[in-house]
Amino acid sequence: MTYPNIPQYFAIDGNVEDIRPFGDGHINDTCHAVLTNPSGKRQDIVLQKMNTKIFKNPKQLMDNVIRVTDHLRHKIVQRGGNPARETLEMIPCRDGAWYYQDVDGECWRCYYMIDGTMSYEKVENPTVFYHSGRAFGQFMADLSDFPAETLFEVIPDFHNTAKRFRDLQEAIEEDLAGRGGSVPEEIQFAQKRKHIAGYMTEKMQAGELPTRVTHNDTKINNILMDPDSGEGVCIIDLDTVMPGSCVYDFGDSIRFGASSALEDEKDLSKVYMDLDLFEAYTEGYLRAVGDQLTPEEISNLSMGAIVITFETGIRFLADYLQGDTYFKISRPEHNLDRCRTQFKLVQDMEEKYETMQAIVEKHRPR
Questions:
Q1: What's residue 14's pLDDT?
Q2: Do residues 263 and 287 touch, judged by C-beta distance below 8 A?
Q3: How high is the pLDDT of residue 173?
Q4: What's the predicted TM-score (pTM) here?
Q5: Whether 215 contacts 68, CB under 8 Å
Q6: Spatial distance between the Cα atoms of 108 and 253, rounded to a whole number of angstroms
Q7: Which of these CATH numbers, 1.10.287, 2.40.160, 3.40.50, 3.30.200, describes 6-112?
Q8: Which residues of the chain have pLDDT under 70?
């Protein structure tokens, strides 16, 4: 991959000393660049090529990011925090735009790297996950007064689980990659749980669950953590910030972080939802979000974990059946392995649902 000349296009001075791939995100291409300005000071920045096959409206996406980070910056200042450290700071292009489009039509953006932080690919202990819950709970609380309906819907129906199920049915019928015959158990598992697909969407359409500003990718690796205190510092990867329901955000954290194994674990005997981790996150999240959630939202947090895990599983399965056109893969059955871990988690959560509900009630704000 080639990168545009950063000082030429973005409003940052300095010579590029080093530039290399960074992170392992599924969607965008990211690199870490080190610049030295004329006075010799080092500046670390992140440069990303946005995946416009998925994010088809980069201007609206960046408008969302700028508006949300501006709002967060204001809230952070109000409580005496450090906005340069606690939310992303985008670097505009020299012409004032928030992204640069190169001669090939590729769209690039740039932001300052936040020093002295780390991220986890997997939750290592309940304390780490507690602080993860606090970070995402604070994010939700800070944005509770933001008019969610004014944000652009970056990916329409992103967490419309009922539509995701219909997409899976279409993928099964078309079987574009000729793989349907090799996954009958996975297809049967999904079809037996069709009722799960409409659970949250029906509540949202009925107004029982309010529309909020949601992150929509609340994995622990989207939090920068302080290695000394262990506390969450900054929520990153804001591409999918848009209107949604907090129960999906909560559930996605549980799906990814409370799992005993990585998202693509092949040995399903290692995969289950850890109740201690579930409780740690729930306690941290509800302490931070305080009284900003409605009773109905709190009562549906556990079900949110089941629904989003099921949704993620059927998305991986549909992509596998379509020939791996959405998620990046590193091996031929990567998406199938991902699907199987999600389905194993769904089954385990179903068995632990009553215990999960008791934990939520234990930590419900009084």
A1: 79
A2: no
A3: 97
A4: 0.91
A5: no
A6: 28
A7: 3.30.200
A8: 1-4, 7, 23-26
Structure tokens belonging to residue 101:
């489009």
Q: What pLDDT sits at residue 25?
A: 60
* pLDDT recorded at residue 38: 79
With the CA atoms of 238, 240, 241 and 246 taken in that order, what torsion angle do they form, in degrees rounded to the nearest 10?
-120
pLDDT the model gives residue 298? 97
Distance CA 226, CA 204 (A): 36
Provide the pLDDT for residue 191: 97
User: What is the structure's pLDDT at 125?
Assistant: 94
Buried b (16+ CB within 10 A) or exposed e, 345-362: bbbbbeebeeebeebbee
Q: Spell out the residues 6+ positions from residue 324 whose beta carbon is closer than 8 angstroms to its own.
A: 177, 334, 335
User: Taking the domains of the chain in order of start, what are their residue ranges?
Assistant: 6-112, 126-363
DSSP-H helix ranges across 108-198: 126-142, 161-174, 184-192, 194-197
Domains 6-112 and 126-363 share a fold: no
d(Cα 40, Cα 15) in Å, to the nearest integer?
10
* Superfamily of segment(s) 126-363: Aminoglycoside phosphotransferase (APH), C-terminal lobe (3.90.1200.10)
